[in-house]
Amino acid sequence: MAAPHFLLQTPVGSVVPVELGGQAVQARFADLQRAAGAQAGLFAEPVATRDATGAILSFAWYAPGTEAQPLSSLGQPQRAAAESQLRAALADLAPRAQGSGGDAALIAAALALPNSSAVLVVDGRPVLAGWGLVPAGDTRDAATRIAAVLGPFLPGPASATPAAPRATPTRSAPPPPPPVLPTATAAPIGPRRFWLVPAAIAIALVFLALGFWLGWKLLAEAVANRPQTAEFVDRDRVRQAIELQRRANEGLAEEVERARRAAEGNVCQATPLTTPPGRGPLPQDLPARPTPPATPDAPLAPRPNNLLQLLDQSVVLVAGPGRDGLSIGTGFFIAPGVVVTNAHVVADVTGQLVIASRHLGRAFPAQVTRRTPQARPGEPDFALLSVSGVPSLTPLTLTRQAQRLDEVIAAGYPAAIVQNDARFQAVLRGEMSQMPELVVTDGRISAIQTLASGLVAMPHSANISPGNSGGPLVDRCGRVAGVNTFNHINAQLAERVSYAQKTDALLAFLREAGISVEPVDSACAPTPEPAAAPATPPSTPPAAPPAATPGTPPATPAPAPATPAPPAPTRTR
User: Fold this and answer.
1) What separation in angstroms does the CA of 494 have from each of 52, 248, 425, 454, 500?
2) Which pLDDT value is given to residue 283?
3) Which of 151, 209, 357, 559 is in the most buried spot, having the most CB atoms within 10 Å?
4) Against a cut of 0.85, is the pTM above it?
């Protein structure tokens, strides 16, 4: 089969597609090919162009072949041959369009054309490009729509079906010839009939002008329907690329649909994880194994040397048994024994809530001390957890300094990643000491928006998914600029946007809870990590110092060069 050839582009606006079953008839092109059978080649293949909302902007039409021309522009021999093929095809399709059933309605809808310029001839055979399109606001029945353009080619009584109420001639028909003037043998022109000659000339001029006007109109429409740009690209290769992109988009749409179903229609909800195959039921009370009695909180640890160590210390997994299994989310320390997460992470927990991380070494019971009343996307969504006996760590600091294109890092435990970790399978069995590694992704702040509820949110390009809820979005200095909360997913366009609540809303929530936090709003200037000291090769024991000469003060050893520590940001109070 020859490669598809671009025929023309039809904008949607003044013409609209006929709908069947709530969708445009062009979307059922495969069904139309099946229903048309041997006449399937009569219909060009449509490719719709859509805007960001999914609305159709135009149709591009393709058919196998190398050269396409409007039927009305052909010479008489080629035109007569193409019209004969068109009549034969319609003689087969028209009776089926008048029957009952889904195929009859499909064929009848496809035979509706906006005008005669939609009838093309590709390599000598007729092709309908623009099928299934009618003028906006058209209320005519199917038979009248078909006869309005294809009436001259329909078989039997259908060809006598009146066209639309307006009595304009079909554009594909040639202009009527001027009437034959009476010859000299008809009757002699006497003195009283001298006016017949100028009257006949006037009538001939009128018909000549009418024919010129019709020809000019057909030529103008043919020129208008042709692409107005020069052909600098290989249309066949572009067609193949479009087909590959369409298949890729379908695969992305399926993946997004699977993710949507996994999130149960609300991406911001904590993800219930089911028991792996072959294993027993989930623990009803976490942790399943006894934990040592809580000890008083240790003093703050020295600030880690790099950002990853800081996040490993301060970011924790938040888990608890819910109605549908183990619900997980993410949280982070803002003060010793105080963890921030999302309210929707703990909303459905019915048993003991715990936090855990590889740095903590085991699970610690946690209690919800305060939470926002709402847990819906677009509303303030925060919760405070109280934890005792945690080992020494460095809490994260907060900042209100956030601008577009700022580099940010999302840290947390997304289920899509950690569920493949063997250590996470141990967590599902209640072994909370077997924690997976913290997952980090980087990106940039795309915008700072005020939502309808008044909440200030930040869409960003760092990937997050269910399980990241409640985790921090930090800058390169390790300061929390926002709290990751929800995603916006458009399955039809395969779009996914990550959203974090800006720290301003968290600061207001903490003030209401009576927790004083001092944000660090200076510009972020990360201090480079100090270079590691070169390894000292093994050497012989140093020689004993020379004996001091009487009267000479003892030598003082030179101090080792100190490695400057990065300045620690202000901690929460």
Assistant:
1) 11, 10, 30, 28, 20
2) 37
3) 357
4) no
